[in-house]
Structure formats: C-alpha cells, structure tokens
Amino acid sequence: MDTFDSISPLDYRYYGNDKEVFEKLQPYLPETAAIKYQLMVEAALVKTLAEKKICSRKVADEVEKAAKTVTAAEVYEEEKRIKHNIRALVNCIRNKVSNEAKPYVHFTATSNDIISTAESLRLKDAAINALLPQLLQLEKTLIKIARREKNTLQIGRTHGQHAEPITFGFTIASYVSRLGGRIAAAAAAANNMRGKFAGAVGAYNASSLLVKDAEEFEASVLKKLGLKPATHSTQIVEPEFAADLMHAVVSAFGVMANVADDMRHLQRTEVGEVAEQFGAEQVGSSTMPHKRNPINFENVKSLWKEFMPRMMTVYADQVSEHQRDLTNSASSRFLPEIIAATFIAAKRLNSAMEKLIVVKENIRKNFEMGKGIIAAEPAYILLAAAGHPDSHEYVRKLTLLSQQLQKTFQEVLFNDAVAQPYLKKLTKEQLKLLQSPEKYTGIAAEKTEKVCRHWEKVLKL
Amino acid sequence: MDTFDSISPLDYRYYGNDKEVFEKLQPYLPETAAIKYQLMVEAALVKTLAEKKICSRKVADEVEKAAKTVTAAEVYEEEKRIKHNIRALVNCIRNKVSNEAKPYVHFTATSNDIISTAESLRLKDAAINALLPQLLQLEKTLIKIARREKNTLQIGRTHGQHAEPITFGFTIASYVSRLGGRIAAAAAAANNMRGKFAGAVGAYNASSLLVKDAEEFEASVLKKLGLKPATHSTQIVEPEFAADLMHAVVSAFGVMANVADDMRHLQRTEVGEVAEQFGAEQVGSSTMPHKRNPINFENVKSLWKEFMPRMMTVYADQVSEHQRDLTNSASSRFLPEIIAATFIAAKRLNSAMEKLIVVKENIRKNFEMGKGIIAAEPAYILLAAAGHPDSHEYVRKLTLLSQQLQKTFQEVLFNDAVAQPYLKKLTKEQLKLLQSPEKYTGIAAEKTEKVCRHWEKVLKL
Amino acid sequence: MDTFDSISPLDYRYYGNDKEVFEKLQPYLPETAAIKYQLMVEAALVKTLAEKKICSRKVADEVEKAAKTVTAAEVYEEEKRIKHNIRALVNCIRNKVSNEAKPYVHFTATSNDIISTAESLRLKDAAINALLPQLLQLEKTLIKIARREKNTLQIGRTHGQHAEPITFGFTIASYVSRLGGRIAAAAAAANNMRGKFAGAVGAYNASSLLVKDAEEFEASVLKKLGLKPATHSTQIVEPEFAADLMHAVVSAFGVMANVADDMRHLQRTEVGEVAEQFGAEQVGSSTMPHKRNPINFENVKSLWKEFMPRMMTVYADQVSEHQRDLTNSASSRFLPEIIAATFIAAKRLNSAMEKLIVVKENIRKNFEMGKGIIAAEPAYILLAAAGHPDSHEYVRKLTLLSQQLQKTFQEVLFNDAVAQPYLKKLTKEQLKLLQSPEKYTGIAAEKTEKVCRHWEKVLKL
Amino acid sequence: MDTFDSISPLDYRYYGNDKEVFEKLQPYLPETAAIKYQLMVEAALVKTLAEKKICSRKVADEVEKAAKTVTAAEVYEEEKRIKHNIRALVNCIRNKVSNEAKPYVHFTATSNDIISTAESLRLKDAAINALLPQLLQLEKTLIKIARREKNTLQIGRTHGQHAEPITFGFTIASYVSRLGGRIAAAAAAANNMRGKFAGAVGAYNASSLLVKDAEEFEASVLKKLGLKPATHSTQIVEPEFAADLMHAVVSAFGVMANVADDMRHLQRTEVGEVAEQFGAEQVGSSTMPHKRNPINFENVKSLWKEFMPRMMTVYADQVSEHQRDLTNSASSRFLPEIIAATFIAAKRLNSAMEKLIVVKENIRKNFEMGKGIIAAEPAYILLAAAGHPDSHEYVRKLTLLSQQLQKTFQEVLFNDAVAQPYLKKLTKEQLKLLQSPEKYTGIAAEKTEKVCRHWEKVLKL
C-alpha cells in the first residue's frame, strides 16, 4: 500500500510524509514496532526459561536469534490462516527453530503476557525516547524566549481585554511552568508502566506448573525488559498505568493547544504582537496572495481537537469484564496514535516558536492604547491604603468619568477634590507609578527568571 | 512507506491488510481520493467558466484532461516547496497546460471552494456508494434471521434477568428497526451534503468580478458534481451538514455496538444461545486451545469505543472564528476514518451474523429455567382483571413463597385459597396460559414480520 | 433543601436563581415535571382502558382525578419504602381511589411504558414549548441585526487575519443561516419523539391478554398524548429518537458557541468592533475598576464546553443489553439538563445580542488598516482575466515588495511595468475597484437579505 | 426552591433526597460551601495583612468575624445589583464592618485570588474529607470479601467464556488492587492542589505595591489555608492541578464501573453467582413481581456513563486565552458534581458489596460445566515440557475431538496413543492435576492475600 493510499492523516501526511518524524517514531509506533516488541518479550521469556533451567541456553539462543528475523509481513500472513495474531507470531518463530526448541517458544505464556508487556514497554519507550525529548526541546525553546523577553513590557489581558502590565517573557513563563509540570508527570507515568507474566486469568496457573515461585519468574522476565510487574493482573495489566500516561500526554497537549491559541490571537491583524515566520516561496492563500496565516499554531490546536477526545476511549477501556473481555483490543491499538500526534504537534510548535517573530513595536503600541486606564488598579489600592473607605467604587466612577470627558484617567484623578487628601499620603514613588503605569509590572521579570530556573532544575535541562 | 510501517490500525490492519475492504474504500477515503475529488472540482469549475464564455471550451478541455493526470505524489512534492496544499494542486495542473489555459486554472476560486466542495462530495459518495450498501447488507442479514427465527421461543431479558417470553426473531427485529432508522437517517444526511463556490469570505467577492449572477455560477459548478450550495457560506460550508451525516453514521455504529454486545452476552458459556462460527484452523487462544471467543463481536464493540468519541471533534469543529479559522483543518482530515471504521465494523458484523450459530437447545433450556416464575406477570394481570384489588403485591408475595417452599409458582398459586374466586373468573385459555407460559409471547412473531416488512418497504430492499 | 444548598450550578444559579428562567422551564424539566408527565400517561392509559370497555368510565375519571393530586414528595416517600419509583407512583394513585378502581391503575403497563412515554413527551414539550421559542427569539434578533447592518462595511477575517471585505450584516447572516437550520432540525426531531405501550419486553405480552389488537391499543393511549409509537420497542423506546433530538439541540448550542466566540474576539481591546452593554452599577472586575468584559459571551461558550460532551452519554446509552438493562436509567435522568442549559445559553445570548453595541468607527478603522493589501485578490483575478499567465505569483511578490518599500499595494502595482499591458485591458469600473477595495464586497448585502428572507419563510417568522 | 423543583438528578435524587449523602457533601459541594470557602480565603487574607502590619489586628478580627456571618443569599442579592459575584461577596463583608476596616476587605486581591484559592481548597477538602473516606470504606469492604473468598473456587472468564480456574477472592483482589491505586493517586493529587495570590494577571502587580516580598506574602496567606502556591499563576492557578485530581477521581470511578459491570453479569439469571440483597418490601418490577434486578450495580455504571465524559470539559478548560479568559467560569462550577457523583456511586457500591450474596452452589455448578476442557491448558504445557514439539496444536485438535465424541477431554487425552510417551514423563502430581483441574488455580489464594496486605499497608488501613 502506497503512503497516499492511507486513510489516516497521521500516516499519509504527518508521519509517513515527513522524514524526520518518520525516523523518530518508526522504532516505536507503527505495527512493525508492535511486532518487534512482542518478539523482544518472547526472547526475554525464553532467556528466563534457560536461567531457570527449564530449557537449555542453546535453545534460548536459538529462539532469540530466530525472533530477531521474524517480520510483520510473515506474522500477518500466518494470522490470515489461523486467525490469531499471537499464535501466528509464535508459529513464525517456531518455524525457524529446531524441534528441540519448539516447545519453549511462548512456553507457559498466554497471548496477553506478551501483548500487555510489549505494549507497556513500547509506550514507555515511545514516551521516553521520542516524545519526552521533543517536549523537552519545546520547553527549552520556551525558556529561551521567556528569558530573552523577560523585560519586554506587554499589556496583560483577561477576557481578551487589556488588564494590567506584565512582560512578554512572563507570558511565556506561564507555558514554561505548565509544560514543565506535564513533562514531569509524563516521565513519572512512563517510568511507572508495568508488565505481566501471570497467565490467562492472572493467577499464574500455567507458570506455577513449572516454577516454584511464579511471581519471581514473572519479575525475572520483566526485569530483562526494564519493567516491573503490576500489583495484580488478570489476563491483562491493570489499565490504570496506561491511563495515567495518556492523561499526562493529553494534558501536555492541552498546554500546547493553549500556547498555540494564544499565539494565534496575538497574531491577529489588529494585535500583531507576534508572527509565524514565512518562507520566501511560501503561499499564504490560494486567492489572497498577501495572506500570512498562523497555520502552524492552527494545526497544533486542530490536532488537539482530534486527539484530546480519545481519552474517552482510554476511560471506556478501563472496564473489561471479569478476567478480561476483548472489547479493548482494537481500541487499544490506537493508543500509539495519541503519542504520535502529541509528538508531531510538539515538533511543529517548537519549530514555530523557535522562529517566532516578536513584533516589539506592536507590543508597545498596544500597551500605549490603554495606558491611562491601567492606573485604575494601583490607584484604587493606594487610595484604599491611604484610608479611602470605598476606593474601588470611587475609582470605578472616575474611570467612567474619564471616558465621558475624554480625558486620561490621571488627569481626572489628580484634579478630583475627593482624591486630594489621600494622594497627599502617597510616596513620590507611588505617585510616579500612577503617572507611569509601565512601571506597574509587579515582579514579572524576576518571576520569569525564577520559573525558568525552577524547571531547568527539576527537568535537569 | 510499507503498510506495516503505518501507525494507524485502520491502515495497517483493517483496511490496508484486507483486499476487499481496500477495494471498497480506496475510491473515497485515502488521500489519493481526497486529491482526486479536488481535481474533479477544479475540472467542474473550468467547465463552467467555458459555459459562461469566460474561457474557451478548448481551455476547459485542456485543464480537465490535465487534472486527470495529476497524482497525490506530485501535489505533495510541490506542497513541500510552497507550503500550501491547494496552490500546490493548482500548480500541478498549471504545469501541464498551455500558457493560454494557465490563468483559468482555479480561476476566481479560493482554496476552500475546492476543499469544502470536494470533501462534501467525497463524504457523500463514501456514504452512498460504500457505507450504505454495507449497512443495507447487514440490514438484509438481520431481516433474514428475524424472519427465520420469528417463532423461536426465547426468554426476554431485562437487567440481565429473565423477564417475559419473546422469540429470538423478535430480538433481532429490534436491531432491524433501529438500524433501518439509522440507514434512512444516514441516506438523508448524505444526500443533503452541500458545496460552495462563494470565495474567500463567502461573499462571492472574486466571482462577482466576472459573472453577473455569482450564486447562479456557484450553482452551475456544483450541479456538475451533483451538489447543491449551502444556504450561506463563509470561507467554508456551514459545518452542520457534515455534523448531521456524522451523527447518523456514529449512531448507526451505536446500534451495531448494541447488536455486538448482545451477541457477546448470548455467547457467554452459561448462556450459550448463539456462537460465532469458528474455522477448522482457527486458534481461539494462545494458551487455552479449547477457547471459542466472540472475537468479531468484541471487535465491533471495541471499534465503536474508539470512534464514537470522535463526535466530540465534530462538535468542536462547529466553532470557527469569524469567516473561518483553520483550527478545523487537520481535525476534519480525520472524518473519513469514521466512515471507514463504521464500514469495517458493519462488514465484520454482517459476516459474523450471516454465519451466526443459533443454539436452539440452549435457548430452550434457558427458557425452561425460570418457566414457572414467568407466569407471575400474567397472573398478576389476570387476577387484577378479575377484580383483585392488590394483585401485584399479592403475586409478589406468592413468588417469594414459592421460592421458600421450593415449589413452582403455579403450584402455589393454584393452591392458594385467596386466588380461588379470581381464578374461577378466568377463561380456559387464560388458565392454560398460566400453566404454559411459553404461550405468553404476546405478538412477538407478528410484530417481527411487521417490522421486517416495514423496513423492506422504507429502504426498498 | 434550600436553593443554595444545591450542588448543580443549573439549580442554584442559572435556573433556581432566575425567576424568568424558572417559570419557563419549571413545567418541563425538574423532577416535579417528570412525575407530572408520568401521571399524565397513567391517566391516558386508564382513559383508554375505559374506551376499550376494560374498566368503566367512572373508574377512569376517578383515577385521572386522583393522578392530578399526587405530588413528587408523596411518590418519593413511598419509594423510600418499596425501592421502586414507578410502583411508588402507582401506589400513590391507588391510595387515592376506590377498591373498584385500584386494579386498573397502571393496568397491563410495565414501568417503562410509563417512563419512556412520559420522558419522550416531556422532552418533546420542553423542546417545542420552551427551547424552540427561545431559539426563535434569538433567530429574530440575529435577523434584525443582519438586516440593520447589511451595508456596514467590515473586513472579513480568515485565520484571524484580514482577508476580503464583507459587511457586518453578512457576518451575522452566517449565524442566521446556521441557527435557522438547527431550529428546523430540532423541531423535526422533537416532533418525531415516540412513545410505547408494549410491555416489559416489547412484545405486548401483558396487553395482549386483554385486548385484541395490542398495537392499536398502544396507538390509542399515545394518541391521547400527541405521540406516535416507535416502530419497534423492547422494554424501552428505540433510543435513536432522543439521540436525534439531543444532536439537534447540542449542534444548535454549537452554533451559539460560535456566535459567542466571534463576539468575544470582536470585543478584544485592539479590535473593539462590538461591546456588551454594561449597566451603570455593574462592576467589571473586583480589582480593575475599569474593565468591561464580554461575560455573557464567555458564559455561553463555557456552558457549551460543559454540555456538549454530554452527547457521549447519549451515544453510550444507545447500547442497552437484550430487552434492556438499566444502565441508562440514571444517565438518562440528566437529559433535561442539556435542554435547560441550551435554553439558558440561548436566552443569555439573545439578551446580549439585543443590546449589542456595534462600534462603527472601529469597524471602519480596522477596515482601513489593510485597505491597500485587500486589493491583491481582485488584482490577481483581473490580471489573470486579462491574460497574465501567472498572476497569483506575480501579485504575491508585489505584496512583498509593497511591504519592503512601505508603499501601498496600489502604488506598487500601478507603477510596475509588467502590470501595464494587463491594466490597460481593464474597465474603468475594475480599475476603480482596485483603488477603492471597499467596493469589493461581492454580493454581501444582497446575500444577507436573501438569507434572512429564506429563514423567515422556512421558520414562519 | 423545593428539592423536587431541581433539574439536576444529583440535587433532587442522589444528594438532596438522601440525608446521609447530604450531610457528608453539604460542607463542601453546594454553593453555600463555595461561598463559605471564599469567605475563609478573605479572612486568611486580612489576617495576613495584619501580620504584615498593613492593617491592625483589630481590623483583621472584625473582618474575619463579619465574614463568618455572610450568607449565600445575601451575596446573590447583592450580585443581582452589581453583576459581579466576588465584588458582591466583598460588599457583603464590607457592609458589616467599620469604615476603618472597609479598605482592607479583599485588599490587593483580584477576584480569582479568592476564587481559585477557595476552589482548590474546597476540592481538596471534598476529596480528602468526603470522597476518600468513602473510597477507603469500599476498599475495606472489597478486602474483606477478597480474604473471605480467597479459597472459593471459581472459573475464570475471558471473553465471557470459561477459561482457567481462579478463586472468587482473587477476582475481588483485582478490584482491591486497582481501586487501591486510584485512591493513592487521588490522595496525592488532592494534596497537591494549589492556591494563588498573584493578582489580576499573575505578576503580583497589586500586592507588590504594599509588600516587599509578594511571593512570601502569597505563601503566608495560603499557608493559613493549608495550601501551597502554584509555581506560576496568571489570573488563575495552572489548571493542571485540578485536571490531575479529576483524572484520579474519574479513573477511580472507572474501576467502580468495572466492579459494577462484573457483578451485574455474575448476577445474570444463567450465571447466578452473586445477587444483590433485596428488602422484604422491595419491588423488583412494576409488572413482573418476581424480578430481582441488580439495580445498584446498574446505577453505578449509569452514573459513570454520565460523569466520565465530563473529563472532556476539564481538558477543554486547560485552554484559557492569554492571562485568562472567562470561558472556564461556568464550566468549572460543575467540577463539584464529578466528586459528588463519584462519592454517591462509591457509597452505593459499597453498600451493595457489603450485602453481596455469594451463591456458592452456582459458582461451583458453573465451574463443573466445563471442568473437563479446563485441563487443555495444563495438558498443552505439560506435554510441551515433556518434549512434544507441537503440543498446542495437538491439544487443540484433541479438544475438538472430545466435543465430537461427546467424551471428556481427559478420556480422549489419556486414551490417545500419541500422548502416551509424554504422559509417562509426568509426575503423579501433574497427572492428578490433569484429572482434577480444580487444583489448577495457580497461586490465586496466596496472591489474593498478598494484594490485600499490600494495599492495607500502602493505604494505612
């Protein structure tokens, strides 16, 4: 099947059509990887059998070697015949080993000892080796921008309305902090993925036939793969380990969606504080040759809308009847898509942020727009501190008055009789701040630095 | 990229690995189809330009011919250079035509005149030419079973508990009716998909430059494709047409999930009323050689859990800022996956139902289990009709008594003094029914036939 | 329990705390209404029994009268004792009638004959009597604005970027059209709600004991309530009728969320094209006395985020095992919340739109911002029409040049040698349009009028 | 408003109508609690102001005392006038204090310093004081059953099919382990809830006017409430802390849904291994007086279907524009509903499990059904261990043969010539196990004990 004959946009567009993405994800996320991981688990099993003297080391070596040569195509061919994917995998290995070794392939294992363990390991590796490095790269980019712009005065916005002054670096520090937290959560969840070797119903029925300590046997197999067993298993590993990882990943995607949305809005024509870089050959619109659209930020938001609802499937798959029903089988095959999409969005967002154009004159111009009115908040607080019993209401009315009179808030305030006794109590510095609200940025710059340093330390950047 | 290098299970497993599915869906759902439909729209445009004498018929023919030769690979190659997918498509056509024809390729169109229209048409065709025939096939299979089993006595179940008698055909008639309704809804929604040729912001700015009646021009282009225009467009067609189609499709999937779930439960070891057919070579379990699992029914339910939540994305994509933001662009690329998965589930369910083994002795055995107690409902009703002022409570206590005494409900009832005056008022037929509750099936068989005939007529089967 | 002791924000804030909302919704949506509707169904049943001579007219009158006096509190009290809600309801009626009448209360009915029918009717009435009038009111408000502003020149925006000219009325016409479509869909779905009187497993087991034509009996009961029977029922009505209604309602909410989002963004400080009206006493912020926030638009969007995902529950509830399991019982109790929230959002949005401040000077100012560049699209089209073989690319480069030279696009275009031969072919009118792109609004005003008229006709406004 | 005039089933049915639930949740989850927590935060603020000598201790005492007397009704009354909920709260306090104290009420705080902090604390307290004790109670009940039944032989089921033997205690141990993990996760997330006192845009603009170390000031206020500050805040606390808590809660609900589903299915008429206890007065069905339905288990599953999708809202609310938009305001008001529903389900499930009837004769009878075939798995493994090169396929065919011949698997196996050389190599114990598969329970009993002990230790039960 050709790439463009794929139905999934992940396959034909975002992964199959992007060499860099393909190379990063191919070891973990396609079906070839699923089968490779299953073969790794079969190899770990037979190695353990040899350690426990259940089979010979020679048999173990033979099986391990054979497992390395089995391909996805072979397995699918065999599955067509017998209609069972793991038995097909097992047959493919068995066909490549001696009669002596044959019985020890998959010995005592149930399909889901292999599948659950392989999938846990695969998702863990995909998170740790592919997704997290990409998220950390984005985190570094954000930290760099936050630091660089920590003193760039910007108007803070709430409800889409100008509120109080901050700095552009402080804006970015918000994402640094939130993404940092999500990276830590994803790393913890990935490192907590578990395997199982407890048989068809979880009671170690089969392995107990042959080994004294079936739990120790399970732990030995899993240790070879870098996993720990779940506290309890049925046919499958407790689904909550994967649910925690998916939650961490999806909520990291949520932070990225927020970054993307904010950048989109800051790029609105009237706001113009940032812009995506555009290539010289790049076409903005098929009919409006002049357009410069925030297509990368839009893409990140759009992918989030597609993949965030997939958590419903994760939660629905928590429910599996008795020692397991198979209604999570097809659906859990789609979990790697969530990691792929998050990786792709992170890569794209990082690239857009790395090249982000910060339009300082527009940031400044927007700040100037409502400069006067900004002083209303410090005015209300300083008047209150000076003893005005109802300064919030008093200042609220002054702002209405200043709009009616088309004067600046300061003009109105400093000329209003009521204000005089309180203004007299203020320090020079406080009075200056009321005149120059660009100084009213609180601790935006220091906080930015602090947040960056905090996450550099936590994430060992 | 090789099939098994795909990340999406749709691509590597359910579509790319299944020749029959591939052949049915390939004309509509992969990226090659998306591009083919866009080229069809470009061709319809230039044909209309010729009709309106804006370009020559020769130019139109040249463009149409060129459009037929453009491939997905070419378009993607060009997109890499200029980073705009529709402009890339346009360039690919332009490169294959004379200088005279070049200006008329995509003339006056905005990208989304092409994309929105092509996608509406593609989803419509996929629904009508691929999905609906498969759903109708399933409907026919269900009707066949319903009719065949309309007299097969079965215990009706509510809360998983035996309730009152029905027939197995009546059970199936429920799915006939519900799926029938969904097929009708999906057909209506598919036939109501709309296109647009209203330009970059929907006001026909560009086309109004050149044609007198821009709406008539739009209608002409779309008519060639078998579509009507939306009542109003911005850059995109009103999203509710596609939302209605997706709702119909997803809710049809919900009915199939219900069928699958019911069959799974009727196949439980203890119930055993139906069974999936098993191939002679088919392996049930990698470790339990004797297992016969309802894997097809499980698969249908599992796919539903994956795809049903995608409606969240459809609803989220209703919101597009102003004359359109692009945050629905990536996400709407995934809509064909919903149709693909519904098709795949329908095909699989149909195949499992066609070969469904109905185990009549178990259906009968289960019915016999609680045969006595079944009479409680008609007893309560007939006693009430005979004038007992509190027969529900009276009968409820008799059932408790029969359990305590380990006697049948009938023994207890017919020997209870209180009942006598009322029993005397009953007809022979009514008394017989109390003794033989297998007659207490209401109009199960007639209703089954009626439902089948109704939907055959509505769906023209 | 006091209003503010409620946990649900619907109860304590949006409905219980708003007299107008309370009065509109109280007849349909609270538990008192649920029970009132169940009593209505019980009354319709006994009336039909009398018609069919199964009981006397006197008995029927007695029951009907009694049913009118039963209260929710009584039913809940009785339910505490016997743990069955419908039996409790039945007992409450029975307690108020003579021994002669007692047997005919709920006679032959199963609980869900009452519940399914009552809920179908209640949701239908809630939609038709409460929600639709409110949505129609909003539609009228939107039509009024669209017409009033159909000539108010506005810059159309795609990707948050200035695109091509439209009018503000045309912007609003988009909502008129989309909401109009949703109202029509909701009305159709509401009028298609169905009832059932087919007994415990849907085969009319009980009613067949006493009436010849059980389906005719069902139809008679339902006709009294203005409902038709479902094509097939199990214990419950086919869930797809309610799913269709909920889809129509939720997708109508989606259109409102889009309106709200657009208004929010048009109210951004830098854009300032619209504003919510603010009361003289209204406080914008507890600390920033000057803030004027789009709180009503934000509220509508926020409620949509809460209620849109509820469709997942609707879809999940399609799956009910065999003749019914009860796992949809608690969840379906929440359906009225979706209607309540949509009503509340519609009312709030209508009120905000009715008082919407349209800031024409800002609309104009924003339009002027990029006035020059707007001409790029018509320039590209007119040059192409004049025979330029590659005018899109040519114009794209001119726009880059105009930015570099800090000249208007027109200056650059009219002075570029390459353009001259093509410009000469243009009509005076076309040249004028390139100079005055405010004329480049396509058919925005006519289309606005047309859309308004269309929906007035369809919706009989 | 009367309880039954509520629209929300939580209010009128599951909380408002249940005294025990009401008493547990009323301190945390209704609007009265929301306002009480906001008043607590206002009190903590003024206390800190006094500590920092910004106001006098007397003023602080006066405000704290006044705050304790403000009621929800008062606040709502004032909000109607000024249309701002926190300013209304502030006014209510201010109205009760001296002019000297007035300026210090809410001093330097923005609304969301109060709201975000109060909500974090409220959700934390609701989780720790109400929800977790209920979940722990359920955990204890499960542990008790697991231990009690750890030796009760039961057939393990996969795909709804009999698989291999376990014990009923082992079945329950699966829930012990999974719920245990979720309780630990919920406790961790609850204890990690954060507050903020960083002002309108998060940069401590206002507080920096008056205190030297604004972060230290924030920490002081929050410490009084038992909270730590978020690493970074905008107008609101980073939303991921609440998202983590909701994920833990919703995934705990998922485990309960699984328990409920399993119990429902074990209560199916044909399975009959467990039963919900029924009261003597309890009515099972309005028309089938004999029905004993798993209504509590159904209710738990049904509530899960309603509340699990609410995570979509939680994820959607991660996205808040710039320093905050208000589109999470209404939606976040619904978070307490998730905790309420999880509490209610846990309580109900606990009560049903406490009284669970374990029907040992049915458990045994079901086990006997397929006793023979169970031996297929150990047979395949032991034959393989004895050197059979293809024992899985060999045994698979024997099981088919045993079904054809209507003999037990053992009869067929022990009489088959091929098996003889391998059977000879088995130990007596192994041969005995093949004859008596009830011994083939692996380490089910020991593992059950181990899992119980593990979670007792981790959760300090």
Put the structure in a nutshell.
The structure is a homotetramer of 461-residue chains. Chain A folds into three domains: 26-104, Fumarase C, Chain B, domain 1 (Orthogonal Bundle), CATH 1.10.275; 111-366, Fumarase C, Chain A, domain 2 (Up-down Bundle), CATH 1.20.200; 376-439.
Describe it for me?
- The structure is a homotetramer of 461-residue chains.
- The first copy, chain A, is mainly alpha-helical and 461 residues long.
- Chain A has three domains: 26-104, Orthogonal Bundle (Fumarase C, Chain B, domain 1); 111-366, Fumarase/aspartase (Central domain) (Fumarase C, Chain A, domain 2, Up-down Bundle), CATH 1.20.200; 376-439.
- Chain A is built from 23 helices and six strands.
- Chain A has helices at residues 9-15, 19-25, 31-51, 57-69, 72-82, 85-94, 111-148, 168-191, 205-208, 214-223, 240-266, 295-307, 311-316, 329-332, 335-354, 360-369, 371-374, 376-385, 391-405, 409-415, 420-424, 428-435, 444-458, and strands at 153-158, 161-167, 194-195, 228-229, 274-275, 357-358.
- In chain A, strands 1-2 form a two-stranded antiparallel sheet.
- The longest helix of chain A is centred in the first third of the chain and has 38 residues, at 111-148.
- Chain A is elongated.
- Chains B and C meet through β1, β2, α8, α9 and α11 of B and β1, β2, α8, α9 and α11 of C.
